[in-house]
Amino acid sequence: MKQKNIVILGSTGSIGEQALQIVREHPDRFNVLGISCNSSWQKLLEQVREFHPRYALVANEQYADELDKRMPSETELLVGYEQLLDLATLDDADVILNSLVGYSGFEPTIEALKAGKKVALANKESLVVGGEIINELIKDDRSQLIPVDSEHSAMLQCLVGEPLDKIEKLVITASGGPFRTWSKKQMRDITVDDALDHPNWSMGAKITIDSATMMNKGLEIIEAHWMFDMPLDKIEAVVHPQSVIHSVVTFTDGSSKAQMGPPTMKVPILYALTYPERVALDAPRLDWQSAFDLTFEPVDYDRFPCLRLAIEAIEEGGLAPAILNAANEIAVERFLNKEITYIDIPRVIESCLDQLNNSGSVTLESLKNIDQQARKLALTV
Ligand SMILES: NC(=O)C1=CN([C@@H]2O[C@H](COP(=O)(O)OP(=O)(O)OC[C@H]3O[C@@H](n4cnc5c(N)ncnc54)[C@H](OP(=O)(O)O)[C@@H]3O)[C@@H](O)[C@H]2O)C=CC1
Ligand SMILES: CC(=O)[C@@H](O)[C@H](O)COP(=O)(O)O
Ligand SMILES: [Mn+2]
What we know:
The protein is an alpha/beta fold. The chain has helices spanning 14-25, 41-51, 64-70, 81-87, 106-114, 125-137, 150-159, 184-187, 192-195, 205-213, 215-227, 266-274, 305-316, 320-336, 344-355, 364-378; strands at residues 4-9, 30-37, 55-58, 76-79, 95-98, 118-121, 145-147, 167-174, 235-239, 245-251, 256-260. The strands form 2 sheets. The chain has a 7-stranded parallel sheet, sandwiched between helices. A 4-stranded mixed sheet has the order 9-8-10-11, covered by helices on one side. Helix 1 (14-25) links the parallel strand 1 (4-9) and strand 2. Bound molecules: NADPH dihydro-nicotinamide-adenine-dinucleotide phosphate (NDP), 1-deoxy-D-xylulose-5-phosphate (DXP) and manganese (II) ion. NADPH dihydro-nicotinamide-adenine-dinucleotide phosphate binds at residues 10, 12-16, 37-40, 59, 99-101, 104, 122-125, 149-150, 201, 203-204, 206-207, 265. It comes from Fodinibius salipaludis. This is 1-deoxy-D-xylulose 5-phosphate reductoisomerase. Catalyzes the NADPH-dependent rearrangement and reduction of 1-deoxy-D-xylulose-5-phosphate (DXP) to 2-C-methyl-D-erythritol 4-phosphate (MEP).
């Protein structure tokens, strides 16, 4: 079997580390060609020593010297964000797994796709910020972009072999997060620890807060809209607290297909790396002989205004989703730093959406520009 050369952008994060666990289980299938961190240089060095990549990158230049002193001679050290774009476009790479968080993942996605690379996309913010540009890049070969996000992987798995013009609805499931049953009054006192305590998934801090505000589901609706080239009125979210059904596709004959499994990201990561092949995995299975519940509830836009803001932003179009994304990143960071409260997060985002002009044309330059403006504003409102 020919090994696939993979590059893992963000190998020190939650998705990146799980991807390396998969490589550990399948050394015959995957060769790690490149890895990267922002500032977790010690973790990166451990990964270099175990996986012997040809390239290892630290984005934060402050840690370059520490790594340079210790880097084995077989691995070339790359430094800084510009070189991250080189890593995303390596000639020998078969798949680029983009597991960066936030806007930092957007340009690497663009460059990788422009270079004709296959991109396994965990970084949903890429599609939120620049879905229109990404869709133009992949219009001749949509298989260049494979979802890693569990819901989108589920939808892809339901869609295999199906005629795309027979899709009636994409139904994205949401756990509802840790505050699914909390009243608005209780939400006033939410702490950072409360918000980081996701009921079903262990993930990086930013996406965990997004799940707690349900912004994550808003971002995922936008992600599905671009990923599957589907109109917004054919996409809906439903709360499913067990996170066992990862999403559902309903077809025009009334039949619905759901993809199920215990909540683990290893399944969608492996599927994205091997698609359209299915490869054995040592992961938990559902136990069909013991009774378990699968329940559903409508989403509540009143208690979770971030979800409403995300849907309004994509309906508005233009630069609005990029403003939403940047303002959300800053609001989440400020919440994690205890500078604002949980209920301030949607307030900051709405204020940025109201104050900034979203009507310009969507280009790489205008997106970068509005991202910076929104970040600046979100620090002050
Ligand atoms: N975790 C999960 O289960 C899921 C995640 N996703 C999506 O996958 C993406 C990654 O999430 P997750 O793994 O949780 O995130 P983490 O925060 O755990 O990891 C992020 C990775 O990106 C690196 N990074 C952060 N900022 C920068 C930057 N400015 N420049 C270069 N590198 C940077 C980090 O380096 P360092 O370690 O040095 O900080 C780390 O390697 C997100 O878009 C998320 O929404 C989607 C579905 C599930
Ligand atoms: C694992 C994954 O894909 C996350 O995006 C997850 O969906 C978060 O859970 P929520 O459904 O609570 O947003
Ligand atoms: Mn998800």
